[in-house]
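Bench notes, afternoon.
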Amino acid sequence: MTQPRLARDTERGRYYSDPAGGPDLVSVTNVLGTAIAKQALIPWAVKLTVEHVLANLPSITLRLATEPTTVVREIKTVHRDAKDRAADLGDRVHAAAEAHILGAPIVDDPEVAPYLGQLKLWLASWNVGLDKHIEATEITVFHRRLGYAGTADLLVWLPTGPARRMELWLIDYKSSATRPAKSVYPENTLQLAALRYAETVLLPDDTDAPMPRIDRTGVLNLRARSHALVPMPADRAAHRAFRGLLEGTRWLHAAPSSYSALTAPADTARPIRKAA
């Protein structure tokens, strides 16, 4: 997502500053990134690297004879460059979505336009009135007691209750150029639960308001040619699981990066003779 207000990047990942003067609060995405190993990234990185090598095999073979170090370095960056491009696209999609919801000017970006078009289609399919049904967009939430903070992409009223009763949804946008529109990750539930059960909403003037009661949570997957709202069970059980990851993250961030090796005492360093 785009850099939220009051958020800053540190050597331990993203933290939020507290306008009230309290300690910095670790971001929800920082917790998930620190405590959850994304196993799918390894085969994805291998696949991208192999595809790049095969597509450029003649030139790579030719260059290996004269500049092997440069070639290897370039190959090693293939998956990182792809990841950075995907993250940049996600940031731009989030920025365009926020601007549309707020009625603000939108940057002309041909790559982002199809994703924004899918958001507009989704809003129209649910008859969402921007002035009537949008509760908030890109809003910062704090849980000072537990020590974390995050940013909710969208709070919106949808007619999903019994007899089409309006319910307040907390929705997180996810954009991808390759994944199916209905696909989600388990940790998406933990992210939504952390935001849902935050205690405080930070208003634009840096004052506090109580977190509103959320009825439903979900991921709104935006693709260039499709979209899907996937409900997620971000309940109290998921929040307890997030709190466990939060505790682990806090320990990891405070742990030393290295430890001193243990040296044997001098009088035991001599070889021990075997008995005759």
